[in-house]
Amino acid sequence: MNWRLEGGLLVDPSRGRVDARSLAVAGGRIAADVSDATPIDVSGCLVLPGNVCAHHHLYSALARGMPGPAEPPRSFPEILERIWWRLDRALDPDTIRLSALLGSVDAAKAGTTAIVDHHASPEAIDGSLETVADGMSEAGLRGIVCYEVTDRHGEARGRAGIAENVRFLRHNRRDLIRGMMGAHASFTIGPSTLEGLVAEARTYNAPVHIHLAEDRADEDDSLQRYKVRTAQRLAQAGALAAGDLVAHGVHLDETEQHLVADSGAWIAHNPRSNMNNGVGYAPVLRMGARVALGTDGIDGDMFTETRTCYLKAREVSWDTGPGFATERLTAGAALVGMLFQEPQLGTLAAGAPADLIVLDYRVPTPLTPANIAGHFVFGLNAAAVRDVMVAGRWVVRSRRHQLVDEEELAARCREAAPALWTRMERF
């Protein structure tokens, strides 16, 4: 169906444009004009490109309110061992799907139209990416999925993780979902498994998506076992190349920072997660233009993540303005655009995919191309999201999800979550 959004203010941060005009959508794309369009009144609202989350863990969606471990963790490795590695082992196909669906619905309602997900379910590997993709698709989002390859449960499961990524890369036929080759982190991946996942990734022309130096333990392990720092190990193995995606990078030294920047890889910066886990602040101010923004499973709210990105960067350097944070959001759109071969994704340009959001934001001060970032960081928030469109289809209208019964989904999740938490006690 064709649409014409009328009466709003078009705000395109990546192109530095603010226009008071209508916006046409035809065939799932933004159009110059459409004669047979259905009008949509967006008077007094802002129309922006949809937000992108460049690193998510949708499987964490049912963890809200989850009881903490009997012995509270005191380090990042203990957080993994006592919380997340128990949760991912307790997942089954039903809770994988519910998590993906709930996380995607919540993200859509927060104005996020695309998610780059990183999945793990060691007791339910086979078919798990199809299940995650099903949840994303049911919620109407654009997404990229991968399975977290790791040897922490033995090399056989490491190989099973590689096979799951390959299976999805070979058989996925969804228009709005793509695949990557997922990997946990250097410290849980042995040489044979790392070699295998890189070989398959390059065979299928799929980028590698891996955690990198999130905690000092990743660097210490690489130095002890391989006599090189983590980024150097990945580069030597061919796992750090143009188009690859590394998450966090908190403990990269100066040599590694240059190595990542020069490789052509993208880095997903997750400031709220880094704060929550106490791992430190990533040197993203020195990492160049390919730094995107993710949530690392906290939620799908990129407005809050963007504001946090700015505040943390500002704390480090007085020279940092709000534009640094909005540029990170734009980088995420460029990453997803690369994966979909849609270079205009994340813009309101004619011909771009119609992934957009309508915000009920009554502009209290002048909004100009020069101060878009200031409004984004200090004014806009997820509560203002009224409507969401992905590839020309309305996913959210008047703050209600159009494809999923939210009350029924919530009821299913309230039943499934306690059972999931109980299963965690086995591991």
Task: Detail the topology: elements first, then pairings.
Elements: E1 3-6, E2 9-12, E3 17-19, E4 23-26, E5 29-31, E6 38-41, E7 46-49, E8 51-56, H1 76-90, H2 93-109, E9 112-117, H3 128-139, E10 142-145, H4 155-171, E11 177-179, E12 181-185, H5 191-203, E13 208-212, H6 216-226, H7 230-236, E14 245-248, H8 254-263, E15 266-269, H9 271-277, E16 291-293, H10 302-316, H11 322-339, E17 356-359, H12 372-378, E18 385-390, E19 393-397, E20 400-401, H13 406-423
Parallel strand pairs: 1-6, 2-7, 8-9, 9-10, 10-11, 12-13, 13-14, 14-15, 15-16
Antiparallel strand pairs: 1-4, 2-3, 4-5, 7-17, 17-18, 18-19, 19-20
Task: Note down, in words, how this protein is organized.
The protein is an alpha/beta fold. It has two domains: 3-50 and 347-401, Urease, subunit C, domain 1; 51-339, TIM Barrel (Alpha-Beta Barrel). It is built from 13 helices and 20 strands. The strands form four sheets. A seven-stranded mixed sheet has the order 3-2-7-17-18-19-20, covered by helices on one side. Helix 8 (254-263) links the parallel strand 14 (245-248) and strand 15 (266-269). Helix 7 (230-236) packs parallel to helix 8 (254-263) and helix 10 (302-316) crosses helix 11 (322-339). The protein starts with a strand and ends with a helix.
Mean pLDDT: 97
- The end-to-end span amounts to 49 Å
Uncertain residue ranges: none
Global morphology: globular
Highest-level CATH class of the largest domain = Alpha Beta
User: Total number of helical segments?
Assistant: 13
Radius of gyration: 21 Å
Structural class estimated from helices and strands: alpha/beta
Beta-strand proportion:
15-25%
Binned, the helix content reads 25-40%
CATH architecture of the largest domain: Alpha-Beta Barrel
- Domains, number: 2
Query: In which order are the strands of the major sheet placed?
Result: 3-2-7-17-18-19-20
CATH superfamily of the largest domain: Metal-dependent hydrolases
- Largest β-sheet summary: 7 strands, mixed
The third-level CATH topology of the largest domain is TIM Barrel
Q: Give the beta-strand count.
A: 20
